Amino acid sequence: MDVYRAGLSMAQWRRLIDDACRGQVTEPIRHIDEARGPRFDAIFVGGGSAGRFGAAVLRSLGGRPLVLERWPFLGGSCPHQACVPHHLFSEAARELDQAQALAGRLWYGKFDPKAASILELVDLFRSKRSGPHAHMNWQSAEQLGIEYIVNAEATVIDASTVRAAGRMFTARALVLCTGSRTARPGIPGEDLPGVFDYASFIEDLNYEPSKIVVIGGSKVAVEYASFYQATGTPTTVVSRGALLAAGGPGRMDDDMRHFVVDGMRARGVELLEQTIVTRISGDGHVAAVEVTGPGGARRIEADFVLMATGEQPNVAAFFPAVPVARDADGFVTVDDRMRTSVPGVYAAGDLLGPPLEMFKSRRSGTTAARNIMGVDSEFSYADIPDFLHTTYEVTWAGLSERAAREKFGDIVTIQVPPPDLAPGDTPLPMAEGSMLYGFTMPERTGFQKCVIDARSRRVVGIHHAGYGAKDAFQYLHHLMTRPGGLTIDELGDMNELYVSPDYFIGYARLRSSQAELTSM
Ligand code: COM
How far apart are the first and last CA of the chain? Predict the structure, then answer.
């Protein structure tokens, strides 16, 4: 189907995408300027964040990109199965947390777990997700002028040739951005009906779970378990190691991690750490998860299991035709310019491995595009701000207190609540999103810590569990990583919009007149 210059409306795009997702439109959807022939400056194999943003930048720099995508829309897994539904569920988790905690108080009625349906929320997402999809297709065509083919599998033939929609396309550079999927560890029973991953949970759920086991200890495990429990559905997390250990050490601060994990436990999530799943059992449908851990062997009944067992890259479209070097987990290795080991072939997005975050995809795609167009550009994702959701938004950037001590020796911290007070002793931190907790359950308002190198006075780590600090952190991280960094004195001279979710500006002002900084 040729949609070039067709000027499809959002409603037309939505209908077309919905029909294609249902299998009613199977032909490729082509937005290509046929008059210019099949030769491009770069072909982006995969139309997620990396491909879409990379193509937009390449075109801005005067190049001709082609994006090839197997789904009938651009934007990738983010709006379809990953980030966007996750954010919907996290917002629900936050609201439900308050509804459970304050049940029978203020305007909250008795909490009815039957009214908080996981299936209903998944259905809501499924019924409306083509709205964002349509926007991506419309924007890419109408505002960005990107040429693309969606609803078509691409096969890479060699480092400059790709076949898609029954035709051959060539380019002087390829950008591989085919994403990743959940790695299945090979646990007996993991293929039983009722065992899902974050993608099949969206695609296939057709019943209301009543008892859930989440397998894994990373972000996905923590996020989905928090949501399930917040709906009132009893949830157990089984993790081989300590929960969220992959975020640290050196990344997630120990005190913040404890606040987060203790908070999950306090809300009723059963956490089994250092525990191995030996078998998932059931007759025609999952019925139990068998585990062995510090307490011995145990059988946990469940009618729903979520595999949150890490990711593996999607390489079938290009490997081994283009034999790029890969790491021990199969992810494609690149340098800071996103160049793979094969000349002229770049890679971007989730294909590069953790962290699997959308901004990393966008920036790695745009870095590849710039370099292809001769604009020298580097992107290192070793030091990035990061976040997850429980019933809180949990955000961090820079170093944990422990890692900062190892690196700089003399460290001061600004911490709320301060280390000498228990969370329930003070209603702080309290801000938008936690005001109601501040006056009812002060131990639930949140946690924050700013880590400062005492000698240079530079802020080297920021950590926040609460509501609404992501915006602040993305800008603070930029300031922290400028050549001169961000000092406590500069932080204290900013104008805070009281009461802002993190207390760093006000507290920095209370301390920044000190010649010898002390913690608070
Ligand atoms: C975001 C998808 S949901 S993209 O990064 O805008 O392509």
Answer: 64
Considering only CA atoms, which of 149, 174, 183 is closest in space to residue 318? 174
Residue with tokens 């083919």: 149
Measured in Å, residue 45 CA sits from the centre of ligand 1 at 16
3-state secondary structure of 99: helix
Q: Any idea of the CA torsion for 67, 156, 175, 218, to the nearest 10 degrees? A: 100
Q: Read off the pLDDT of each residue in 341-359 and give the average, rounded to a whole number.
A: 94
Percent of the chain at pLDDT exceeding 70: 99
- pLDDT score of 247 more than 60: no
Q: Is the pLDDT of residue 249 over 50?
A: no
CA 234/CA 252 separation, integer angstroms: 27
**Residue 250 in this model has a pLDDT that exceeds 60:** no
* Ordered DSSP codes for 174-240: EEE---EEEPP---TTTTSTTEE-HHHHHHH--S--SSEEEE-SSHHHHHHHHHHHHTT--EEEE-S
Distance of CA 411 to the CA centre of its chain: 30
Mean of per-residue pLDDT scores for the chain: 96
Peptide bond into 249 cis (omega under 30): yes
The ligand 1 atom at the shortest distance from the C-alpha of residue 78 is 3
What is the rounded distance in angstroms from the CA atom of residue 176 to the CA atom of residue 368? 10
β-strand 154-158 against 345-347: which pairing, if any?
unpaired
- Whole-angstrom Cα distance, residue 376 to residue 380? 14
Which helix (H) or strand (E) element contains residue 266? helix 254-266
Q: Could you tell me if 36 and 156 are in contact, meaning their C-beta atoms sit under 8 angstroms apart?
A: no
Angle between the N-to-C axes of helices 49-60 and 358-372, in degrees from 0 to 180, rounded to the nearest 10 = 30
Interval 276-303 mean pLDDT: 97
What's phi and psi for 46, nearest 5 deg?
Answer: 120, 130
Q: Which residues pair with residue 447 across a beta bridge?
A: 465
Nearest CA to ligand 1 atom 5: 49
Ligand 1 midpoint to CA 515 (Å): 46
CA distance 506 to 115: 41
Residues 6+ apart with CB under 8 A from 139: none
Helix axes 83-101, 118-128, angle to 10 degrees: 140
Q: Which atom of ligand 1 is nearest to the CA of 74?
A: 7
The residues with which 414 forms a beta bridge, in sequence order, are 450
How do 393-398 and 39-45 pair as beta strands?
unpaired
- Would you tell me the crossing angle of helices 83-101 and 219-230 to the nearest 10 degrees? 40
Once rounded to an integer, what is the mean pLDDT over residues 390-416? Answer: 96
pLDDT-derived band at 263, boundaries 50, 70, 90: very high
Nearest-atom number in ligand 1 for the CA of 83 is 3
